[in-house]
């Protein structure tokens, strides 16, 4: 069977196969991608063309000279020929090049290559930078046939140490119309089954700019609603349509380099340390949340709604208390104070933390978390958030003593419908430092954060064409 494999020349002389030039026999069709970077390990991912064995080889030089670390995984149709390995025994703060091949019997395909940089040692206050954002391929903003997703070329030019993908990485529940040349055809959708979900993930990874970024930049990932269904919550969906939830979760873990835990292979919430200057607490705000239509708190039971679930909430409190990092980044796929649930939250309920006028958000749980942070003197907390469809920066003074207690930095969309900033919920006394956007405008954007050796933090909002829309510098307390 003949397959078309488009090869893109990357920076530093690397190449990656982004999907489909002429090739016979086994081939890597999608990837590679690295993720879950620690000082001594990384998760490496790729997809093959057929059943066989993926072999990942890792070198500390771009020529693959000297001794190589090798890891293998068998792939077959049951996992859509995707595979990942946990590469261990690495050196902190080290640049690595890796290559992956697919072998079937006595045939081995051509290698495709990527690169990553391990995290600094836990006690090293090393400077670093990262990008973050959400919303790819939503509301018909799929792969432009003339340009592709150039925002990822812009992001790669920033040379981040890693990329934080904060949800809505695919919109399987909306269409990618290819009529009149609007988008590259091949994944029109919308989809509500396993094969359809896989189709959309493959479609995204076949964009050359996106594939180049992921091959060269390690990614930490979480999800939001559009990976399965608009505004979904795990417990509710498991009652209404358990197969849909199972399919969406399965494909998410098939197509991202994330492994869960030994006790729970689908656990997404986790903490990540990046040297002495930063800890990241990556939340899962979909798997455990109460339905949107519930009141907060219930007028009958007086119990508040949960977005985190009891186990994740307790984990977060404990992890924050134990952190000795300069900055504590809490990764939230939904905003804190901008009520979301567009286009009609007054009917369907609010999808983010803010209650708005109808008390359908998850504000009381957030209040409990903020009280814990304040009462335990946890300083230098920054929430990173997404989903609003406009970028923003907000400072908060919930106890109204005139001092900023924490910040929220938001960025979205990367390629879905841009919206104008909405009204903000005043519960936690927010001060909007920046918010910008317009309906169906060109404010596709991502966040860029740089942390210096001395801990100074600079946040920028970067538009798809590279223009800096906003910049804010914070110093740790």
How much helical structure, as a percent, in the residues? 10-25%
Low-confidence stretches: 1-22
Radius of gyration: 22 Å
End-to-end C-alpha gap = 61 Å
Strand residue content: 25-35%
According to CATH, the homologous superfamily of the largest domain is Alkaline phosphatase D (PhoD)
Explain what the structure shows.
With 477 residues, the chain is an alpha+beta fold. The protein has two domains: 2-117, Sandwich (Immunoglobulin-like); 128-474, 4-Layer Sandwich (Purple Acid Phosphatase, chain A, domain 2), CATH 3.60.21. The chain is 17% helix and 30% strand. It contains eight helices and 25 strands. The chain has helices at residues 151-157, 194-205, 208-216, 234-240, 242-255, 310-322, 345-348, 363-375, and strands at 2-4, 6-9, 15-19, 22-24, 28-35, 41-48, 52-59, 69-75, 82-88, 95-104, 107-108, 112-117, 128-133, 162-165, 219-221, 270-273, 278-282, 327-332, 381-385, 392-396, 406-410, 430-435, 445-451, 457-463, 468-474. The strands form six sheets. Strands 16-17-18-19-21-20-22 form a seven-stranded mixed beta sheet, covered by helices on one side. Strands 15-14-13-23-24-25 form a six-stranded mixed beta sheet, with no helix packed on it. A hairpin with a 5-residue loop joins β5 (28-35) and β6 (41-48). It is globular.
